[in-house]
Amino acid sequence: MTTSATTNAAGVATERSSRRRGGLARPTGIPWILPALVVSVGVLYYCIGYTGYLSTLKWDGASPLQLQVGLENYARMFRDPIFWRALGNTALFYVVTFAVQVALGIVLACLLHSRLYLKTLYKVLIFVPVVLAPATTAPVFRQIYAPTGTLNTVLEGIGLGGLAQPWFSNGTFALFIIISVQIWQSTGVVFILYFAAIGQISPEVIEAARIDGAGDIRIITSIIWPSVRGTTIAIAILSAIGSLKTFDIPFLITSGGPTYATEFLGTRIYRISVQYSDVGLGAAFSIVLLLLAIGTAVLIQVGSRTREEKAGV
Amino acid sequence: MFETRRLRSRIGLQILLTVLVVPFVFPLYAMVQGSLEGLGWGNYATVLSLPVLPKFFINSALISAAVIVIVMFCTMTAAFGFSKLHIRFKEVYFWLLLICLTLPGVVLIAPLFATVTRVGAYNTLWAVIIPVAALQIPFTTLLARNFVDGIPSELIEAARVDGASIVRVFWDILLPLSRPIMAAVLVLVFINSWNEFLLALLFLQTPDQQTITLVPSFFVGQYNNDQTKVLAAAVLTGLPVVIAYVFLQRFFERGLAAGALK
């Protein structure tokens, strides 16, 4: 597109004023993208390269003693049962958050496209958790599920005191609490994306379906769901990367416990690099996490393309 | 969208919506309510009377301001370059940026730590500003490029023909037309840098350098886990972003949606 634009500019230039021709034909854009490339690509690729180098060392992060160990750190990582546990937690976390957020996001987006009252207020309320830092909201979640916290008080209040328990001591509950906090935190984004996508479906199509006797659920499954496919794929990629990146929420609410039940790759990297001072092993985890993130993004992208082609045939 | 012609279905949908939104509000309600238990507003008075608190706010504000300036400058120049100027192997550079979108901040901690201590930036705000800016630029550039792609190239060509330099085109044509996306970038970057936790936790060690996101953990130590004070501190730290979001809500949603719909 830009190539045609520049030749256009050159064409116009020769007609009107040939003396500026050289300057107009090829205004090179390199200096314009340079700041972004230096600050972002420069810093980040430098860090990635450095991490790759660190992953071949046995180093505590402070002492001058650095020992070259080749791929030993990677071998140790794959032998680490917590690595596999963290991967499993990430997978479960991804599947549940993605499914719930997509369902909630679409329903909320449809509801807020209907003629209802106080829509802006509802939108703001759904989105406020997105803008709050996990560091800000973590204390309240610790408070809600604490042994003498809100949830247990409510359970006792309604006569279900038998169900009250220290929620964070149970691994399964702890993991689902982390998952629910993530859903609470980021459904707003999914909702906004669907809200925008549904706004682009022409109302006539929906009216026509309604005249043909389609109900609300039929309209969602047969018209809205296929029309927002691109958005759903974007959300699948975003939340896959988001799941792999998960750090703040488990770190601040459960610190990865009890006994690694809510350990994710991010919290594992922090624990190994900072608390155990095993920088080399932490770097090996980091490289694998990075490859997983890029790989997942590419896989979902390619997978959705091939399905599209099949659907086209 | 949904059937709302009959009053009964309309009320039903309103109730459904309310029921779905309650879980989003409940933790916020619990937060405010918890912060008012015991001493009531006295909890806020205690938190606000702490002499280091203004420092936390100032540091977060300084970090956010610096990150916004850096990201805005890099994003708008890059969006202009990628969208409207001739660059050989343009898409290669763009992909180099896009790959960084997948980068989790936590994988940077070891190399950053080594580098930051070597250049003497440990426990200075720059140790947080530069990496946070670097991590945001890929996404904001993607958003802004999509937006600038929608500005007709003819406008820029016309100005060039009239003798405007590239810098003037950028300043007098592109930037004024890009205000909506700049507002979206502004809010997005503000929220993300204000909320940054991990890098601040690692690199800012003394209370006079620390940021707002470290306040709740600071109070856990300070008040021996007095939940009411911790929650009051959390409410205070959350207020600026909520206010920023509520006031700039339209720009924010439009910007996010514009970037994702492409």
From TrEMBL, chain A:
Name the segments for region: Disordered. Answer: 1-24
The keyword Transmembrane belongs to this UniProt entry's keyword annotation: yes
Give any Pfam family that matches.
BPD_transp_1
Arranged from A to Z, the UniProt key words for this protein are:
Cell membrane, Membrane, Transmembrane, Transmembrane helix, Transport
Name the membrane topology term. Multi-pass membrane protein
Q: Which residues form the signal peptide?
A: none
Q: Where in the cell is it found?
A: Cell membrane
Instruction: Tell me the domain of life.
Output: Bacteria
Q: Where are the transmembrane segments?
A: 29-53, 91-112, 124-145, 173-198, 219-241, 279-300
Q: What is its main location?
A: membrane
Tell me where in this chain the ABC transmembrane type-1 domain is found. Answer: 87-300
The UniProt entry's sequence similarity note says: Belongs to the binding-protein-dependent transport system permease family.
Q: What is this protein called?
A: Sugar ABC transporter permease
What is the organism of origin for this protein? Amnibacterium soli
UniProtKB/TrEMBL annotation, chain B:
Q: ABC transmembrane type-1 domain: which residues? A: 57-248
What Pfam families does the entry give? BPD_transp_1 (PF00528)
Enumerate the InterPro entries for this protein.
MetI-like, MetI-like_sf
How is it placed in the membrane, per its record?
Multi-pass membrane protein
Q: Subcellular location, in the record's words?
A: Cell membrane
- What keywords are assigned to this protein? Cell membrane, Membrane, Transmembrane, Transmembrane helix, Transport
**CDD domains referenced in this protein's UniProt entry, alphabetically:** TM_PBP2 (cd06261)
Q: Transmembrane segments in this chain: where? A: 12-36, 56-80, 92-113, 125-148, 169-191, 230-248
Checking SUPFAM superfamilies in the record gives: MetI-like (SSF161098)
- Principal location: membrane
Tell me the protein family, please: Belongs to the binding-protein-dependent transport system permease family.
Q: What is this protein called?
A: Carbohydrate ABC transporter permease
Native organism is: Amnibacterium soli
